[in-house]
Specification:
With 127 residues, this protein is mainly alpha-helical. The protein folds into two domains: 63 residues, no CATH class; 55 residues, no CATH class. The protein is 85% helix and 0% strand. It has seven helices and no strands. It is globular and about 45 Å long. It starts with a helix and ends with a helix.
Length: 127
């Protein structure tokens, strides 16, 4: 077993322990951090990223989500202009779940998931 794989397994075990501890103590922050660590582990395993790269990817996602929350009405207006085929409910999904929004863009514009994600990422980078 390589040291990288061993490190991934240890990090995954720590994440599982945090989630478990958060659930039994009712500590939402520990639960959240554990799930964040699980997602970092998922990125490591599925994309072959190093821990720091996966962690940075999650931080970029969190930052993008904060930007969306803080500028949500302005962004919704611009999203509606860019993707006019989307319904108000689908545009509102952007505030709650990027994955659902990405699926809507994919379905309405006949894009692949990667194309939809790229378009959304490019669009959000202007904010």
């Amino acid at each position: 077993m390589s040291t990288i794989k061993l490190s991934e397994d240890i990090n995954q075990s720590k994440a599982d322990a945090r989630v478990w501890w958060g659930k039994i103590t009712g500590n939402a922050y520990a639960d959240f951090e554990g799930n964040k660590d699980r997602f970092i582990g998922y990125l490591q395993n599925q994309r072959g990223l190093l821990y720091e790269d996966a962690k940075n990817e999650v931080l970029r996602f969190e930052n993008a989500r904060q930007v969306i929350k803080s500028k949500s009405e302005d962004i919704k207006s611009e999203v509606k202009q860019k993707w006019s085929k989307l319904t108000t409910e689908e545009v509102d999904a952007l505030s709650n779940n990027l994955r659902d929004f990405s699926k809507s863009v994919q379905q309405k514009y006949y894009n692949t998931q990667e194309e939809a994600n790229y378009q959304i990422k490019t669009f959000l980078s202007q904010f």
